[in-house]
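ESCALATION

Customer reports they have been waiting on this structure for their group meeting. Please prioritize. Original submission:
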Amino acid sequence: MITANAPAVLVRGALAGMLLAAVRCMAASAGQECDTSRYPLSTPEERFEDRGDGTLLDRQTQLLWLRCAVGQQWSGGQCSGQASLLSWPAALQQVQDLNSHGTWFFSDWRIPRIQELASIAERQCRNPRINLRLFPGTPAAPFWSATPRQPSGSDAALLMLGFGEEGVGHDDQEGRHFVRLVRTGP
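Update from on-call: job pushed to the front of the queue and completed.
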């Protein structure tokens, strides 16, 4: 805590530190808010190994993630372009195309199950609920999972996870949502 009697150097140092933290948060996303005053981040950067190629290895789950959503490109440490809104059939076609070309070094990328997608949600942030330093450019919106809705009157309904306020939901295969790809690592 800074008091009125604190040396000016200490005050300037503390203020500079708070300003740097605020700038980092704003640089991550103009609208994102993260509150670590009571609990630490649920997806701290130390948990992930940056492969330097647009992928991250989650040391806790041993999953290798693409840092950008489908439709975006990894460039200069950021995701550029717009994430694609895809129906389920179109999402599966994107995965098949990516794997057939060997893009991103492997041919076994897939759409994550709901538990896997939830493992990268950041509970201490909102708008979006993800660590934007790890997954830059992530929309605060629903992403497809490969988990079918249970019980379902139709096998066409799949679960999705929203990185906005919506949480877990479901939609039929013609709905259009974002996609992030994963593979079992390393």
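Sent to customer with the following note: The radius of gyration is 19 Å.
Escalation resolved.
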